[in-house]
Model the fold of this input.
Amino acid sequence: MVLTGLADEAVGTQAVKEGAQDYLIKGQTDRNLLARSVNYAVERKKLHEILRENDERYKALFNNSVDAVLLTRSDGTILAANPEACRMFGRSEEELIQCGRDGVIDAGDPRLTAALEERSRTGRFKGELLLKRKDGSTFPGEISTSLFKDRNGNDMTSMIIRDITEHRHLEEQLRHAQKMEAVGTLAGGIAHDFNNILNVIMGYGTLVLDGLGADDPLKTQMNEVLTAAERAVNLTRRLLVFSRKQVVDIKPVDVNETVTGIQKMLARVIRENIEFKLELAERQLVVMADAGQIEQVLMNLASNARDAMPEGGRLTIGTGVEELDEEYVAAYGYGKPGVYALITVSDSGCGMDEETRKKIFEPFFTMKGIGEGTGLGLAISYGIIKQHNGFINVYSEPGQGTVFKIYLPLIEEPAVLGKQAEPLVSVKGGSETVLVAEDDASLRKLTRIVLESFGYTVITAEDGEEAIARFMENRDRIRLVMLDMIMPKKNGKEVSEVLRQTSPGIKILFASGYTMDLVKTRELTESGFDFIHKPIQPKDLLKRVREILDRGHEHA
Done:
């Protein structure tokens, strides 16, 4: 505010232009006018401070937003862009202003027209569009726009943009995990039914073979039948590994020792024109695992790396430690966040495209020629790692090689799991009474024939409820109950609970081709139950039955 004795209108006008709140002339200004002018000046100063603070807040929000923010005219001209927008699109603010909206939204996105129509109709739009960077690459973005008018009444648009590439990647991982779980369930179910059939083939085949003379020409043919059946058994076991239904020998394992232990074997798998080296962590990496299955995974990956480098190259196996957060784990639908041992298997081979990567862990998918591979190697590896509550990922591009990353939960204190299995006794028969509950008629008949051939008395049942009824009728003489885990009406576990309530000391042997995971198996054995995996050779069945019956104590 200027208070002067100079009554010059031009000077007063210039003073106001320079920022003066008022121009007062001495001798022409009374006390009330002066007080009023001072009050107005103070109020204007306060308003100016408020506007300045609001402007600073707006700039802070604009410049520090984790999302990209663009201010545009209705025709798509960009007026301002925050730093995150510049980073996201790979352009400076000047470049964004120059290229406009068409320079950041892919014009080929079929959703664009509908988005613009919705914004014009409602004044808002929220949805996904395909965006593009300065280098021409595209990425999915979640966009929220709002129409507003500036102080001159012109239509303006605010655009808030979030890059959802990682979100889409996690969704794809979850879909893939769900797909693999469904395929695994199917594979496990097929293996269960197939095992019952193989059990009958191998059982009767063994009985026929034992009845043939040493010089009988059918003996050679029957041996071929049994050999083929054994190969089929191995196939179902591989399917069970993929489906996470195979029992494993879990104990503390040092990942570095496991890798080092099969170094020579891996070297024999690859060719001389492939350079092979290990890059191991200096610290111990102890995990709860079946060392044999981890070795199988590494052998499978090494074999695939070899086939991807027919002209030679490099194969590197490394170990380390990595922490996985909740977002990573949630994408798979299982496991826990925490510290994991990391195994990387990388090669300099031909690599693979995105479509191949999506199918790489599916059973029977192979890039090899007919007769050169079963397509189960990587599917089995996936199943093994998942059964260990771990994760396996693949990173690859055509011509750029491939990297597999395996994560296994790291433990700090090694522990000893389980107890050693008791040794099997020699095959011999007995006179005890055995209840056999099996829903497959052919397998039920075979089991009865085998046991009765060695002197046992056998009572059979075809479902869970019949098993309970037969036991109640004969519980004073039944010494062993053999239960199929999967049966109609009541499953094996449910039947065992009823029998134990009536006869706490009864010995129970569970049998199934659809084997359980480690936790369920340990729950059974710690409760005093026994378990045998189908298909069962007659001699193995007889040994197991005799072993259980000969125990000097009963499980409580």
In short: The longest helix spans residues 165-211. The CA atoms of residues 114 and 125 lie 10 Å apart. Residues 369-374, 414-426 have pLDDT under 50 and may be disordered. The chain is about 45% helix and 20% strand.
